[in-house]
Amino acid sequence: MTVMSQEEMMVGIKTVAQGLEALKNELMASNNPSGQNTMQPEEKQSMLQKTLDMTELGLGEAQVMLALASHLQNVEAEKQKLRTQVRRLCQENAWLRDELANTQQKLQASEQAVALLDEQNKHLEFMASISKFDADKTEDQTESKQEKSKNDDPVVDLFPDDENEERNTLSPTPPSQFAQQVNAGAGYEIPARLRTLHNLVIQYASQGRYEVAVPLCKQALEDLEKTSGHDHPDVATMLNILALVYRDQNKYKDAANLLNDALAIREKTLGENHPAVAATLNNLAVLYGKRGKYKDAEPLCKRALEIREAVLGKGHPDVAKQLNNLALLCQNQGKYEEVERYYQRALEIYEKKLGPDDPNVAKTKNNLASCYLKQGKYKEAEILYKQVLTRAHEREFGTIDGDNKPIWQVAEEREENKNKSTGAAPYTEYGGWHKAAKVDSPTVTTTLKNLGALYRRQGKYEAAETLEDCALRSRKEVHKSEN
């Protein structure tokens, strides 16, 4: 139904009124005897009745239209009112959301503050409970700390990251190895009154909870300096721990200051040739290496090597690890002749002291091969990569023969037979190799990728794809086992 406005209705009513007036005039004219109207009375009556019906119908429709227009006006007014209420409610809702977000942030900050205060309270209670040990310290205990076994100080591992073997940077310290590095850095037995706190800090740091570990270290340093003075081996130990925490947070400047302070204390109290001094020197070398200051790191690493050789002997495995660290620093400076010499000497120590199946042997061979690769010595690199894979195969599958071939031989056969219709070994025959050949050792997977890259440089694409596919499968298997 078309809605008429009030003006349209008024126009319609006026039109009807005019029609009635015209009808009236016509009737009056018909009653005039002098007129010439020949319309019969019945016709006039019918016309009049029709006009009346139309008039009544028009009036009825006009009333309906007026009522409908009034109703629509009321509905529109109510709609506007509801829209205003909706806008007001939306504004109130946005305000409430902002208030809720601010309240949640304040609550989270309060919870963190409460947690930190709780940890500090526990630490203070712990320090109070172990304060009785201070009275039990004697000169004999001090001497025994300084003359403790020198074999408890292995050096921090600086091998390249196994998933980025070609990268010329020092690998970051994994949180899972943090505790081992900190314990290795002492060079002597941790005193009883510090051992529990020492382990607590390591636990928090290895979990990445630095907001708790750092205050604990600082509180311990403050307590130690009050009771023992700044120049004390225990203070140096806590400085070393805090420095490693800062290093894992990439706060290298703060870590370097702490390590230099710890080094000065240990040289003064323990002597310049003590294993703890070598550990601090090595940690400083690691720190400078992470910042790309290889020239500053190299002399520190060399001095640490000299101390370990003098204390442990030139054939000790820790000396070999220090040689690996020094080789890596030289490699980042392009000193490949020194790199080869250091790696070869480390390899001899590992093979002699730990045996050919020790993981460090394969790792060092891989590193030396990568050094050859950077110099374009592809043949030398290929020999070492194949030695690593061959040894891994023999360890898992036994002696190599015609039916028991290492993966690199299978890859080369596939390369030779790629254009032949028969003769190439199907992948299923060696597809399970990656599951059994020490896939838990990232060095084997890295060797597969490196030898694959070498094959690709030589144009042996079929062999390269074989090794690369095997390395990819190995990596997936490791990830599945970790998950």
TrEMBL record:
<comment type="subunit">
    <text>Oligomeric complex composed of two heavy chains and two light chains.</text>
</comment>
<dbReference type="InterPro" id="IPR019734">
    <property type="entry name" value="TPR_rpt"/>
</dbReference>
<keyword id="KW-0206">Cytoskeleton</keyword>
<dbReference type="GO" id="GO:0005871">
    <property type="term" value="C:kinesin complex"/>
</dbReference>
<keyword id="KW-0505">Motor protein</keyword>
<dbReference type="GO" id="GO:0019894">
    <property type="term" value="F:kinesin binding"/>
</dbReference>
<keyword id="KW-0175">Coiled coil</keyword>
<keyword id="KW-0963">Cytoplasm</keyword>
<dbReference type="InterPro" id="IPR002151">
    <property type="entry name" value="Kinesin_light"/>
</dbReference>
<keyword id="KW-0677">Repeat</keyword>
<dbReference type="GO" id="GO:0007018">
    <property type="term" value="P:microtubule-based movement"/>
</dbReference>
<comment type="similarity">
    <text>Belongs to the kinesin light chain family.</text>
</comment>
<dbReference type="InterPro" id="IPR015792">
    <property type="entry name" value="Kinesin_light_repeat"/>
</dbReference>
<keyword id="KW-0802">TPR repeat</keyword>
<keyword id="KW-0493">Microtubule</keyword>
<feature type="region of interest" description="Disordered">
    <location>
        <begin position="135"/>
        <end position="179"/>
    </location>
</feature>
<feature type="coiled-coil region">
    <location>
        <begin position="65"/>
        <end position="120"/>
    </location>
</feature>
<comment type="function">
    <text>Kinesin is a microtubule-associated force-producing protein that play a role in organelle transport.</text>
</comment>
<dbReference type="GO" id="GO:0005737">
    <property type="term" value="C:cytoplasm"/>
</dbReference>
<dbReference type="GO" id="GO:0005874">
    <property type="term" value="C:microtubule"/>
</dbReference>
<dbReference type="Pfam" id="PF13424">
    <property type="entry name" value="TPR_12"/>
</dbReference>
<protein>
    <recommendedName>
        <fullName>Kinesin light chain</fullName>
    </recommendedName>
</protein>
<dbReference type="Pfam" id="PF13374">
    <property type="entry name" value="TPR_10"/>
</dbReference>
<feature type="compositionally biased region" description="Basic and acidic residues">
    <location>
        <begin position="135"/>
        <end position="153"/>
    </location>
</feature>
<dbReference type="InterPro" id="IPR011990">
    <property type="entry name" value="TPR-like_helical_dom_sf"/>
</dbReference>
<feature type="repeat" description="TPR">
    <location>
        <begin position="320"/>
        <end position="353"/>
    </location>
</feature>
